[in-house]
Amino acid sequence: MKILSVEGGRPLEGSIRVQGSKNSVLPIMAASLLAGGETVIRNCPDLSDVDVSVRILRHLGCAVRREGGAIAVDPRGMDRSDIPDCLMREMRSSVVFMGAILARTGFARLSYPGGCELGPRPIDLHLSALRELGAEIDETGGRIICRAARLKGGMVRLATPSVGATENAMLAASRAEGETLIFNPAREPEIADLQDFLRKLGTDVSGAGGPVISVRGGGPTGGAEHTVIPDRIVAATWLCAACSAGGRVELTGCIPEHFESVTEAVEALGAEVKRGADSVSVRVKRPRRAIRPVSTAPYPGFPTDAQPILMAALLRAQGTTQFTETIFENRYRHVSELRRLGAEISVDGTQAVLRGVKELRGETLTAPDLRGGAAMVVAGLTARGETRVVDAGHIARGYESFDDRLCALGADVWIEHKGKGTYEDASQPDQPAAFQQARRV
Ligand code: EPU
């Protein structure tokens, strides 16, 4: 088990380059199955979810090489169409391999995906999109078996603009015969990034970011090279960390318009913000103030992934801020933990009301999921004394060297590994089960 500790009270100061996007690189790695040759994906973040995708690709028979932030995938040796349960369980994005495997081999066998527990996360829209393209799908005993001798273009109408279902539909459609139209698709920047990658593979696809995506299926034309977009949720996290700790932070290598809704919130709470072409800087002096109600929404609305993190940045702001979570049913699991620091937050269904307090005191908290864990660290930056975040392995699913980067900005953060119990330990089998390492930078 990994424990991340933070001693609060130090302002952040410095510049930080935003890592590549987790939610872009994972579907793009799945899409690399559709190439006719080697693809090279650059700006890949070093995350445990990326490691899982590499293991899935290798299991399927692909040759995968990693050099720094580049991952080269050659799918020509692919000789399997299944994903083992243990890999499916490790992350939500394992499910986007379904459309790509089916498109490539006409058959896919997998199970239900894991990932953060944010309430029910059905995959009915993924399955109905694939059925619309001609797949026969059998769901029995937790197994999903998809068959399609030939996929055919169709009309996919998504009741909700699901990110994963849009990706699965795009992947399957890019090998289907004829045109597919996807109505009410997700408009997140990661969808446009997947579109760019598929175009490089020779697929005729357009409309990402708008109300309808059109995909004309065709065979692969070879390999491709692609650079993944910067991670807008990580960028949002650094802004919120600066607001919590105070200080001055410059983000570089980012696309400011991708997280403008978060930047506006940060500005409203009292940060001075300067936007550049590919940078954003914030300067935060106390006192911070409560902001207008925040309601999560599909892009370009306020991202659900940033909700816990903005909440953490507002814990000591003067006044009351109201949150409404509209995407996931159970996305306030961080609240009970933040209260243990002295935060005043009440939750009623989809609503949370946060009343700023004068002081927070460090405590031992447990990360419930990836963004909830990051929120606890952001809160710990402004708490008196030491905040320990247990199960911090969740954070490594989405943040590259989170502790080192915070330290580089002047925070007092360190990591301990204890015992067994997370997927991270499985990748470090040599480490003794008892206390392994304590590092203080
Ligand atoms: N939904 C359905 N049926 C489906 C699919 C989704 O009802 O078949 C519902 C969900 O229950 C949810 C809503 O649609 O209420 C949106 O879910 P979506 O499918 O868009 O989410 P996702 O694809 O599972 C991705 C990100 C999440 C992010 C959401 C929303 C990846 C790997 N994950 O999940 O990211 O919160 O979109 O923006 O892209 C994270 O990075 O921490 C994270 C959880």
Please explain how this structure is put together:
The chain is α+β, with helices and mostly antiparallel strands and 441 residues long. The chain is 28% helix and 25% strand. The protein has 14 helices and 24 strands. It has helices spanning 22-31, 48-59, 85-88, 97-105, 124-132, 163-173, 189-200, 232-245, 260-268, 307-313, 335-339, 370-380, 402-408, 423-426, and strands at 2-7, 12-17, 39-42, 63-67, 70-74, 107-111, 136-140, 143-147, 155-157, 179-183, 204-206, 212-216, 224-227, 247-252, 272-275, 279-284, 294-295, 320-324, 344-348, 351-355, 364-366, 386-390, 412-417, 437-440. Strands 21-22-1-23-24 form a 5-stranded mixed sheet, covered by helices on one side. β19 and β20 form a beta hairpin. α4 (97-105) packs parallel to α6 (163-173). The longest helix is centred in the middle third of the chain and has 14 residues, at 232-245. Uridine-diphosphate-2(N-acetylglucosaminyl) butyric acid binds at residues 23, 26, 92-93, 116, 120-126, 160, 162-165, 186, 304-305, 327-328, 370-371, 398. Uridine-diphosphate-2(N-acetylglucosaminyl) butyric acid is lined by residues 23, 26, 92-93, 116, 120-126, 160, 162-165, 186, 304-305, 327-328, 370-371, 398.
